[in-house]
Amino acid sequence: MDFEAKLDQARSRFTNEIANNISLYDLPASIGRLYGTIFFSEDPVTLDELSRQTGMSKTSMSTGVRTLADANMIEKTWRKGVRKDLYQTDPDWYKSFSTVFIKRWSEASELNLKALRIAKAELEEVREKAGAEIAERAQADIDKLEAAEAYYEWLNEVISLFETDKIYELVPKKEVPAKDV
């Protein structure tokens, strides 16, 4: 049995799945493959090494690495005698998820709440100044917006749980069993 091929197959399987699902982080599949390559590297890697391993241009590679670093998915590291930047995955998957979750959902929540409040003010004006039938329809819309507003306020509380790490008091991180060496 060719165990090297089995090793590569298992790594490819996980990397491909990361590439398929990284869109949840609003990132392209190529960045997912880049992450998988760094994840399975046995040592920190340079942009040149990553470019050779993935076939991506150095410009694309640099952009991808910056994107992954901004999402706290990889980190720059240092090794004596190496002048180029080295990269490795950040072992804290919780931190990278939290970073992306907070960024994406707080932006969406803020924009939606702003639009909601403007629409609500407009509907309140319609309700006050329009005839009975239109005022009734405006009130029905206001009621719907108030339900949505309650949801966004709740979502902001969830975001706060992630920002303050209190989420881990409610849902503790899973412990990774120690390995005997």
Quick overview of this protein structure:
The chain has seven helices and two strands. With 181 residues, the chain is mainly α. The protein has a two-stranded antiparallel ribbon with strand order 1-2.
Folded structure, characterized:
By secondary structure, this protein is mainly α. It has 2 domains: 3-90, Arc Repressor Mutant, subunit A (Orthogonal Bundle); 94-170. Helices cover 69% and strands 4% of the residues. It contains 7 helices and 2 strands. The chain has helices at residues 3-21, 29-40, 47-54, 58-70, 93-129, 132-163, 167-170, and strands spanning 74-77, 86-89. It has a two-stranded antiparallel sheet. Strand 1 (74-77) and strand 2 form a beta hairpin. Helix 1 (3-21) runs antiparallel to helix 2 (29-40) and helix 5 runs antiparallel to helix 6. The two termini are 26 Å apart.
Global Rg: 24 Å
**Which series of helices and strands comes N to C?**
HHHHEEHHH
CATH homology superfamily name of the largest domain: Winged helix-like DNA-binding domain superfamily/Winged helix DNA-binding domain
Q: List the domain count as a whole number.
A: 2
Q: What amount of the residues lies in strands?
A: under 5%
